[in-house]
Amino acid sequence: MKRISWSTRNVVYALMMLALLALLPVLLQKSLANAYHFKSRFYIDQWQQGAKPTSLQYANALLAADYAYSIDDQNPHYLLTLAKVMEWGVFSQLAQPNKTVFNQLYIGAIIQRPNWPNAYSDYAYNLAFIQKDIVQAWPYLQQALHYGPYTPEVLHQTLAIGFAYWPSLTVSQKQTVFSTAHIAANANWKMRNDLKQLALEYRLTSVMCTYLTYATPVSANVDKWIKQDMCR
To answer: How much of the chain is in helix, strand and coil states, percent to nearest 5?
Structure first.
């Protein structure tokens, strides 16, 4: 019988194949988790564009987000997505808030990515509007502004929280909101419209108009928008 001779290259190839076969179940699980994550994100994107969640949509989105989280509970995207689906359930009166789970998910996401501004602003939004705790929310909002002062989501959530709690804010906190409004006004059309709609919703148009008109220098285009759109 002829003896089989194994070269070093063949041994390396064989070991690589064995390693890939060993990793295959893990890779399949990761791919499946990612697929479920994007399924839940699809629903969130629809809701953010104005569609009202149905009980079936919420159940499907929650199941998908929870499944992705169960496979990889260290992925900050999965943590935030699950929290956001749960929030939509609360806002749509399809579910009751679970503060313990919300805190666990958001703090977990922040631990995984401590420089991620969205994690801080999302948590601040949850604390302010679901847990009704502006004292706890404000430091997270400040962290969001520190790491992402020009991030659209951070600007939106800072304005929304600031306007909603305007009467109870300190002078320093109001200055932070004013500064954020200035950044939003100078950012782009989408952020300017967001600023206008939020100010209108919380009846702070005159306050923002006074600030933008007299307190801060702006470009000619922004000045035109303030006079002809925001403050007309």
So the answer is: 80, 0, 20
